[in-house]
Specification:
The complex is a heterodimer of chains A (115) and B (112).
Chain A (H helix, E strand, L loop, with lengths): L4 E3 L2 E4 L5 E6 L6 E8 L3 E9 L2 E5 L6 E5 L5 E5 L8 E8 L10 E2 L3 E5 L1
Parallel strand pairs in A: 2-11
Antiparallel strand pairs in A: 1-3, 3-8, 4-5, 4-9, 5-6, 7-8, 9-10, 9-11
Chain B lengths: L8 E5 L4 E6 L8 E7 L6 E6 L4 E2 L4 E4 L5 E6 L8 E11 L2 E6 L3 E6 L1
Parallel strand pairs in B: 1-10
Antiparallel strand pairs in B: 2-7, 3-4, 3-8, 5-6, 6-7, 8-9, 8-10
The chains are: A mainly beta (115), B mainly beta (112).
C-alpha cells in the first residue's frame, strides 16, 4: 500500500501571499489530520477532516483553513502568510475518527518557508 | 488540553534496553496513551498505544501505571536505527473527533 503523500515537499513564499498544500491519504483511510511543526512550538494540531467534514480544530487563526474531497484527499490553505508560518506541515491519515484508538500514518511533510 | 511531560533527552547503548518515561497527571479516563517517534527528516511514526493495561508489539512495550498518570515506553534492545525523537501523546476524543496533543518529546541517542 502506498503511504501518505504530500505535495509539494518544499515551498518558498513571500509575506502576504497565500499557499495551498495537498495531502493524499492511504487508500481506504477517511480521516485526515494536519499538524504544524516548528522548532519553538513543536508539533501542533491544526484540524481533522473525516468524510469531508471538519471534525476538530486546533488553536490557530482563521487564516488556516482546509477541506477534504470525496476521495478523502485533503488540502490546507494559509492566507496572508506571515514569517511565523514558516514550518513543516504534516498530514496524517487513519482509518477512523473517534471511538477506539487508531494509529495515524504521517506523510513526509511540506516544508514552507515564508520570506 | 491534557499535557505530557518527558525528559528532553536520553542516551543509551546499542543492544541495551531503553526505558523512556512520560508523565501525564491530568489524563482523563477516556484518553489513550500513544507513542510516536520521529526520525530525522521524516514524519512521525506510530510506535504503540494503550489505555489501561500494559501492551506489547513488535517494536516496543508500553507499561502504564495503575493510576494512569505515567507510562514508560520500553525498547528491549536498542539499535542505531532507534535514534529518534520519541513523543508521548494523549489521544483525546472531542465531540467524536480525535486529536493528538504532542509534547516536546525525548531525543534518544544510541551509542554504538
Amino acid at each position: 500500500k502506498a503511504g501518505v503523500t504530500q505535495t509539494p515537499r518544499y515551498l518558498i513564499k513571500t509575506r502576504g501571499q497565500q499557499v495551498t498544500l495537498s495531502c493524499s491519504p492511504i487508500s481506504g483511510h477517511r480521516s485526515v489530520s494536519w499538524y504544524q511543526q516548528t522548532p519553538g512550538q513543536g508539533l501542533q494540531f491544526l484540524f481533522e477532516y473525516f468524510s469531508e467534514t471538519q471534525r476538530n480544530k486546533g488553536n490557530f487563526p482563521g487564516r488556516f483553513s482546509g477541506r477534504q474531497f470525496s476521495n478523502s484527499r485533503s488540502e490546507m490553505n494559509v492566507s496572508t502568510l506571515e514569517l511565523g508560518d514558516s514550518a513543516l506541515y504534516l498530514c496524517a491519515s487513519s482509518t477512523f475518527s473517534g471511538g477506539n484508538a487508531y494509529e495515524q500514518y504521517f506523510g513526509p511533510g511540506t516544508r514552507l518557508t515564508v520570506t | 488540553d491534557a499535557k505530557t511531560t518527558q525528559p528532553n533527552s536520553m542516551e543509551s547503548n546499542e543492544e541495551e534496553p531503553v526505558h523512556l518515561p512520560c508523565n501525564h497527571s491530568t489524563i482523563s479516563g477516556t484518553d489513550y496513551i500513544h507513542w510516536y517517534r520521529q526520525l530525522p527528516s521524516q514524519g512521525p511514526e506510530y510506535v504503540i498505544h494503550g489505555l489501561t493495561s500494559n501492551v506489547n508489539n513488535r517494536m516496543a512495550s508500553l507499561a502504564i501505571a495503575e493510576d494512569r498518570k505515567s507510562s514508560t515506553l520500553i525498547l528491549h534492545r536498542a539499535t542505531l536505527r532507534d535514534a529518534a525523537v520519541y513523543y508521548c501523546i494523549l489521544r483525546a476524543v472531542i465531540q467524536g473527533a480525535q486529536k493528538l496533543v504532542f509534547g516536546q518529546g525525548t531525543r534518544l541517542t544510541i551509542n554504538p
